[in-house]
Specification:
Radius of gyration: 27 Å
Structural class: alpha/beta
Number of strands: 18
CATH topology of the largest domain: Rossmann fold
Distance between the termini: 47 Å
CATH superfamily of the largest domain: HUPs
Shape: globular
Bound molecules: xanthosine-5'-monophosphate
Helix content: 25-40%
Strand order of the largest sheet: 2-1-3-4-9-8-7-5-6
Largest sheet: 9 strands, mixed
CATH architecture of the largest domain: 3-Layer(aba) Sandwich
Number of helices: 14
CATH class of the largest domain: Alpha Beta
Number of domains: 3
């Protein structure tokens, strides 16, 4: 199975999973472990290399995370990054001090390109720094292999013991040749062959889920989105009918979406699992009658989801495991915790309190979105499901401004379907997210010599890398014209189509 692996030892830095991801991009299996992991456990895992991450502490603080010195004696190559670099220096007898000048952001480092870590790197390379302490003196046995005008030891190496340290963050994109540094470490220092691929993740995960779950019962809330779909298929491959997936159709899904999910996961689909579709449309529409305030709508949709799920879970009874499709960015976001609530996101966070289970399993916890998609394709999930754009938990409920009715849901579904169809036909691929929303505005129009007084559909399309900020996309006028014509002709109740030119900020991507 895992013939070669690199361990990322987590000292509390922000980019730890990113380091693991970069190592995986070198086709080497990689796991992030807390710095409290015992040396015995690390040795038993037989890693080809170990990377010490950055972290917010100073090595001299009493509470700062350290690691026993013996780790340097087990014969496994080690690379320290930022705090990890300082920790190596400190532990092995070097001197770490508060730097007279902190370096933050883009920083040019002069490196020794004859050193294996910098093989193929430019002598002056642009890196990303973020530190207030620095290594003032390298420990005995270390050569200084990098410096900046204010940082005397921006990199150091002990080639005999294969211990390396860099003050900058090679894992972030701003370090222009950072990937080269990491791949030098992984291939040239650790001697990895780079045989690992996403299918190995799939295989290893299925195997370890099987071992963990044994004959236990597993419950999964399936939304039809990428993350929960990939998690469900992994579980289905691991434990088959021991898995039950509950799919709640709240009547706020995109056109045909409920049936598409059922076609893949239901009894006629390719996977072995118990699939329960709950058609809860009526009760949702009932609860949402007359409600217009966005947060109130979100709250009702979220709570109703929990209630529906609770009823199903009660029918099933106690289970051993509850599956969550948590992916790495969710882990970071929930860790931040202090930012203002702009919108209360409805995911499945409330579920654990209403399900009788022993443990949560989160098989995608270490993956980024694009890695989840790769795993999904490896698992044979249809590309249209795997490549779906993000769809919010409250669904079309937050794309209908004002009161939600069954008639309005139909209007926005049909308009959105046409929009997506035309974008696909035009071959436009680089959009972050695009959808139709139903404004609460009615206006006067004329159709076939008659006056109309109908709704306006708003089209939205944004370019975004992280969904935190976004620019309105400049869609070709031809496409917008075609979509507009089709919507006003084909969707009853709409006589006007508007295009949203607002970025985020000041707008948000969704309308409510
Ligand atoms: P906003 O509207 O906040 O959206 O700019 C940013 C991204 O988050 C999605 N979104 C949600 N996703 N539950 C989710 O799972 C939610 O309640 C929710 N609200 C917004 C939105 O589609 C966009 O991708």
């Amino acid at each position: 199975m895992k013939e070669e692996m690199v361990i990322v030892l987590d000292f509390g830095g922000q980019y730890n999973q990113l380091i693991a991801r970069r190592v995986r991009e070198c086709n080497v299996y990689c796991e992030v472990l807390p710095y409290t992991t015992s040396l015995e456990k690390i040795k038993a895992m037989n890693p080809k290399g170990i990377i010490f991450t950055g972290g917010p502490n100073s090595v001299y603080d009493e509470t700062s995370p350290h690691y026993q010195k013996e780790i340097f004696e087990i014969g496994v190559p080690i690379l320290g990054i930022c705090y990890g670099a300082q920790l190596i220096a400190y532990t092995l007898g070097g001197i770490v001090k508060t730097a007279p000048v902190s370096e933050y952001g883009h920083t040019e480092v002069e490196v020794d390109t004859t050193n294996v870590l910098f093989d193929g790197v430019s002598p002056t390379t642009v890196t990303w720094m973020s530190h207030t302490d620095y290594i003032a003196e390298a420990p005995a046995g270390f050569a200084i292999t990098g410096h900046t005008p204010v940082c005397p030891v921006a990199a150091m190496s002990n080639d005999t013991d294969k211990i390396y340290a860099v003050q900058f963050h090679p894992e972030v994109m701003h370090s222009v040749e950072g990937m080269k540094v990491l791949s030098n470490f992984v291939y040239k220092v650790c001697g990895c062959a780079g045989t690992w691929k996403m299918d190995s993740f799939v295989e290893t995960t299925i195997q370890s889920l099987r071992e963990k779950i044994g004959t236990g019962k597993v419950l999964c809330a399936l939304s039809g989105g990428v993350d929960s779909s990939v998690a469900a298929v992994l579980l289905s491959k691991a434990v088959g009918k021991q898995l039950t997936c509950v799919f709640v159709d709240h009547g706020l899904l995109r056109k045909n979406e409920g049936d598409e999910v059922e076609a893949v996961f239901g009894p006629n689909g390719p996977y072995e699992l118990n699939f329960i579709r709950v058609n809860a449309q009526e009760r949702y529409y009932e609860k949402l009658k007359g409600v217009t305030e966005p947060e109130a709508k979100r709250k009702i949709i979220g709570e109703e989801f929990i209630r529906v799920f609770e009823e199903e879970a009660n029918k099933i009874g106690a289970v051993d495991y509850l599956v969550q499709g948590t992916i790495y960015p969710d882990v970071i976001e929930s860790g931040l915790g202090k930012s203002a609530v702009i919108k209360s996101h409805h995911n499945v966070g409330g579920l654990p309190s209403v399900v009788d289970f022993k443990e949560i399993v989160e098989p995608l916890r270490m993956l980024f979105k694009d890695e989840v998609r790769k795993a999904g394709l490896e698992l044979g999930i249809p590309a249209y499901l795997v490549n779906r754009q993000p769809f919010p938990g409250p669904g079309l409920g937050i794309r209908i401004i004002g009161e939600i009715t069954e008639e309005k849901v139909k209007i926005v579904q049909d308009a959105d379907f046409i929009y997506r169809e035309e974008i696909a036909k035009a071959g436009i691929e680089n959009l972050g997210q695009y959808f139709a929303a139903l404004t609460n505005m009615r206006s006067v129009g004329v159709m076939g010599d008659f006056r109309t007084y109908d709704y306006a559909i708003a089209l939205r399309a944004v370019m975004t890398a992280d969904f935190m900020t976004a620019d309105a996309a400049e869609l070709p006028w031809e496409v917008l014209k075609k979509v507009t014509n089709r919507i006003v002709n084909e969707v009853k109740g709409v006589n006007r189509v508007l295009y949203d030119c607002t970025g985020k900020p000041p707008g948000t991507i969704e309308f409510e």
